[in-house]
Predict the structure.
Amino acid sequence: MRAAARGIEMKATIERATLLKGLSHVQSVVERRNTIPILSNVLIEATPEGGLKLMATDLDLQINETIAAAVDQPGATTVSAHTLFDIARKLPEGSQVSLSAADGKLTIVAGRARFQLGTLPRDDFPVIAEGELPVSFELPAETLKQIIDKTRFAISTEETRYYLNGIFLHVSADPQPVLKAAATDGHRLARVTMPRPEGAEAMPDVIVPRKCIAELRKLLDEVDALVGVSLSSTKIRFDLGHALLTSKLIDGTFPDYSRVIPTGNDKILKIDPRSFEEGVDRVSTIATEKTRAVKMALDRDKIILSVTSPDNGTAAEEVPGEYTSLPFEIGFNSRYLLDILGQLHGDTIEVHLADAAAPTLIRENDKAAALYVLMPMRV
């Protein structure tokens, strides 16, 4: 209690590596430019049980993380997240960092280095009110990683179509109960299907925003257990053990994407995804930023990829593949095609084609959890 008498509001000691890791998670939630000063800050709370709680928010997304520390004086303060992170990054490796808050200042001491930063009172720090989160289930961290990796490249970045700025999660019973994750930007669609987790039966359809997905994916690299998912129709929370990530959901209606998944594409190409990906990558070297178009000419077991660029010239490459339907030509945006191929594994994949203007279906096989739809381009 002696410390409190001298006006110290909080005092704790922590290993630099522990502090740096915790701050690296929370500071990335904080927006670089804020009109509300306290939103640039991280809330640091030294708990009576020992340990530091870190919290940051942008009012749509909030992260709470608990890290190990020796607490001399429990209490809390808020300080610039990016500045504290930059300081922690530059402190000597292996050093013990002392943090003490008093009189509107946070003093940071490590070895011979000493910093003093201005603070703002913890009572002004906004907290997202979660309200009731009636639906909760668990997913293995590995499963969540796959859902994100196989779909997030297709999330739209067009702010006007805000309802496409995230991953759409919904349950359905076709014919077994499943959980589906989908993302689309209107040019391509990615969808992953998995058995419905226990507890997700009454789950509302939700769109998880792009920023939440990015932060969640970073945190998942350090988790190998089950992740708790709790949600309502407006909020979602991921419990990763050491960290809690809470986000508002996108308030909008995701389009009925099942309508664009072709079912009658009868021209089937079977091809090794690696040689296909490498071929597309090579010929698209000369494609211009504007067009990025790669042409695919299909003939019996013969696939020729080519690019014609008015500025750079031409490129062509024949790639091996199995194809027995009528010859035809189709064009794709090479970057979109490469994004999809990068997520496909195995020795062969199936490309289901109809004609030069129809959506094309790409998947590993009919048992695969993931499927992709790509709109062709005129070439």
Remarks:
- Residues 153 and 317 are 26 Å apart (CA to CA).
- The two ends are 76 Å apart (CA to CA).
